[in-house]
Amino acid sequence: MSTLLDVENLWVRFPTRNGVFDAVRGISFTLGRERLGIVGESGSGKSMTGRSILRLIRAPGVVEADHISLEGQDLLQLSEKEMREVRGKRISMVMQDPKFSLNPVMTIGDQIMEAYRLHSKASKSEAYAKSIEMLEAVSIRDPERVMRAYPHEMSGGMGQRIMIAMMLIPNPEILIADEPTSALDVSVQRQVLDIMDKLVRERGMGLIFISHDLNLVADFCDRVLIMYAGRVVEVCEADKLHEAKHPYTRGLLNSLPRLDAPRDHLEVLQRDPAWSEAPSVSGRS
Ligand SMILES: Nc1ncnc2c1ncn2[C@@H]1O[C@H](COP(=O)(O)OP(=O)(O)O)[C@@H](O)[C@H]1O
Ligand SMILES: [Mg+2]
Questions:
Q1: Which InterPro entries does this entry report, sorted A to Z (predicted)?
Q2: How many domains does the chain have?
């Protein structure tokens, strides 16, 4: 499988009053033209991993790695100007909270068209047509009205779908989707997953799908990295996730409600300090 992204020994550090806090601790993985899931409980370093690929960690946070290579080119060596060319065009990211990513004083239509025209020489009418097409693709009804609306007029789920449409218009090689469907109801969630799936299958896009929902990831992804305390504790084929061996992964699976085997109470995850001390498992394929 051709490698799109190669991340080696990634650390994300935050200086604090009590010393340096390592949010991501030396993880390595590759991404091909596949759906790679990253799962783990809240605070395990999933979002920081996604953001560090695009060098979007805010100061005083620091990203360090042996390399973060996009088709052989180390992103850490690029200037900020060169990095802006990568963001949105070659690698797009749908952030966990879309409300903060949309400009409140610009109509949805102007924002989508601006995002598109930033990276292509399309005319205004082409950009408009493409925007309508993408809004329809993410199941937005009445896209003409949505184009004229402002972000505050949208529900959370609509905001999330608009962000996804916006991120996909420039046809990126890699999409990093951080909990992209968590605000959506089940039927819309399925539609959004289908769109991303189609882009992976038909255009060979690489997808990093961040989620805390193990069942969803087992169902949707090809391969899964399981993160705990900034490290990758286990890597497995998504369809083998339910056979995972690491006690943390087993614990996450056992603490999920299951429709086929309802229980009176859900197990509480017992943590072992050894999990966070063990070296990261490699997610290279
Ligand atoms: N600005 C910051 N300063 C210190 N720690 C931070 C900062 N931002 C995030 N963190 C910490 O980094 C860790 C990983 O966060 P994150 O990647 O957002 O987790 P996840 O997405 O898996 O829930 C968390 O423990 C969080 O508290
Ligand atoms: Mg997160």
A1: AAA+_ATPase, ABC_Ni/Peptide_Import, ABC_transporter-like_ATP-bd, Oligopep_ABC_C, P-loop_NTPase
A2: 2
